[in-house]
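Issue: copy button drops trailing tokens. Both records pasted manually instead:
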Amino acid sequence: MSADVSTFFATRINAARGTSDADMNRALSRLLRDFAGHIWGWTQTACRQHGDRQMMYSDDVYNVISLDVAQALRKEIVEATEPPIVNYYSYLQKIAQRSAFAFFHSSERTGFSSASGASRRLSKINKTRKELTISLGREPSDIEVVEEVNRQAYATRKDPQKQGALVTLADLRTTTTSSLDGMMEEFGDIVWRPTSAEDSALSSAEAPQLVDAIVNGCANVSAVLGKVAESWIGQAMAEPPVIRTSKEIAGELGMKPADATALLSDCKAVAKVVCRELLGIDSPFA
């Protein structure tokens, strides 16, 4: 992740500070549009990590991540976190990972109304965390979440210990990014530290060149594939950046969704080859 991206996030968020309640939804919509390309990247990574290599759940995961990112942005705009977050990219990326993990391990996703004890506890943890965030007006600590989950368990169950309804801090860290507490414990001060240029995967000069090379590579295969690639990532470096889904590509180019999906898959295959040959990296778009 480049220093340019970290600065991009910080600039957009800082510009939204002081937004009135009446204009808050509009400001959040602008930020989500600005960050859409990155949210889509996190979505693709999460789907692959959870075995969804065909991206069957990508739209749902994108929506879940966008909602949780929007909630985090709203809190940050209203009142800046102390100590101040410098690396917003890393901070929001961890939130995205937590959101995706919760989605792929929810009873709704697995299709089982009676999920395993661990999955039920995780679902309860995530639900309680969101409820406390609303009631407290801030992100609750892990200890506060544990105490509230167990309080509710004792209030509604005869023997919560025997029924496996009680949770511990270990349950919260089933996913490595269950909260800011967990992020700090695992990643140290990287959440607060600005990313250095040496950490950059792509420079501000390399990124546009890479996009052009991918689009041109697809066009060399066929004119149709070139048009699909242009629709897909042709505006990835724009302000705000745009990376379209197969559904959006189909709508823009007037083709069948199934054809757009197949052609987008071909574009991603070309992107992998171009990235490997041009810069020796994995494709950030695959």
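Record 2 (pasted manually too):
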Amino acid sequence: MFWKRREPEWVTPPTTPCPDCGGQRVPAESAVEMFLISRRGGRKLTDLLALVCLDCGRVHLYAERLDKVRADT
């Protein structure tokens, strides 16, 4: 059987206000990789993108490559 090659699914974090306080969120430089563990027991390695709220300081993390997270699920 032939495997269909998937194109990378890059994520663009939303530019919406902070859901906690309504403040402005800005992208933050990060050098973070994380294993995301699915409920089925699989582990997926992906880089993380971060948005930081300038008012309350909350950090929101987003998986950069959804295709890596969705693979084999």
